[in-house]
Amino acid sequence: MATVRKVSGALRRILSLHGGGRERLFHVSSRAQSGSVSHSPIHQGDSTHNPLQSKAVCDPLPVFMHAEVQSLLHAITGFDLQRVARTKKMEIKKPQYKLLTDEELSSMVTRAQKRLQSRLQMPPFMKSRQPVRHVLSQDRDLEGLETHKHVFTDISSGIKDRHRIIVVRETDGTLREADWHERDRINQIYNPLPGRELRTPLMFSPQYLEDLLASGKFEYVLDAACVQFEPDDPEYIRVTHRTIEVIDSTHRYEELRCTRHFGPLAFYLVWYKKADFLLIDMLQRQLWSDAGDLVRLYTIVHPDSPAQLMNLPHENPLDVVKAFCDVEAHHKGQLQLALQAAEEAHKRWKSTLPIDVGTSVHD
Q1: How many CB atoms sit inside 10 A of residue 253's CB?
Q2: At residue 320, what are phi and psi to the nearest 5 degrees?
Q3: Among 262, 311, 293, CA closest to 362
Q4: Helix H or strand E segment including 3
Q5: Which of 257, 297, 284 is nearest to 79 (CA)?
Q6: What are the CA-CA distances from residue 133 to residues 20, 160, 320 (Å)?
Q7: Among 195, 184, 182, which residue's Cα sits nearest to residue 162?
């Protein structure tokens, strides 16, 4: 068992002489459940670097955080007031009654909608963090002095957990940076986050996770993962990706629509070129604008794809989907059938419109 010791801010100045290793960390908020993230690493590259042109580095975060990508993901997610504000299990409180004028009621509704919009803030889509293997020093004179490791932690206030200096003295005298597992446990001891357990709950183990997913508790699993793990934790990535794979294989996308997890789900499917069945689902639900936005998202994430080289139309989303189906679809037959049904439904929809109404498609 390791011994945990509190160390003042002086440790920061002392360890800075050893390089500290902080240059390898990203500016990512430790509160993953808020979705707040700054995606620039401490070592910046060329300031003119375009993240949409560098998919070869396999880091999805700069692409995910791109303004146009975020705009499309929010549009695809949708906003259903009844669903976002649905009742959840919580402590029962006495209701409050107020007499309001029409103006005051309108103002309160607007503020409530803004608060509900914050519930749709998407957790970041990141690649797995790299292991920490930075040795600060090796003092053989201390070898065998202790039978257990010592952990030294800078507990100064005003420091993000992500950047907090935590070092470990091994029994052989080696002084090294704490690995990610040790950092997560120590940070949870000194700065506990609400809802996060010190040890990983059993629900995330493969056996119990599969049982939860088989019962359709997708949103529950994803919400719990956002609280328990950092967004670049390999365990978070394993749990969320497995959940999305089950949703995609069962075509139960509607379970996450109008939730904060629908954007990452769509981005995952686009990133790995598995968006065919999500497109089919959108067409079957007559979410034609969403289907067109999903194809546009595909061409942004994959700028070298054949679809990107074409002059995709923007007036009719069904034309955008048709162009995608011709050059990029992996399940072309099923997508073509869904597209034909959507075109027929679109014609029936247009026939019910007044003559002076435009012909643009709206879901």
Answers
A1: 21
A2: -65, -45
A3: 293
A4: strand 3-7
A5: 257
A6: 12, 21, 48
A7: 184
Structure tokens at 64: 């995910």
| CB contact burial 62-95 (16+ within 10 A = b; e otherwise) | bbbbbeebeebbbbbbbeeeeebeeeeeeeeeee
Please tell me the predicted confidence (pLDDT) of residue 240: 97
**Residue 153: strand pairing partners:** 6, 166
Nearest to 221 by CA among 208, 233, 231: 208
| Pair of tokens at residue 172 | 């052989």
The model's pTM is 0.76
DSSP string, 133-174: --EEEE-GGGTTS-SS-EEEEE--TT--GGG--EEEE-TTSE
Instruction: Give tens-digit pLDDT for 168-193.
Output: 999 999 999 999 999 999 999 999 99
Q: Do 105 and 208 meet the contact criterion of CB atoms below 8 Å apart?
A: no
Residues shown for the chain:
363
**Structure token pair of residue 27:** 């500016």
- Torsions phi, psi for 27 (to 5 deg): -80, 80
SS3 38: strand
Per-residue pLDDT, averaged over 91-118, amounts to 81
**Residue 266, both tokens:** 């769509």
* The pLDDT of residue 29 is above 50: no
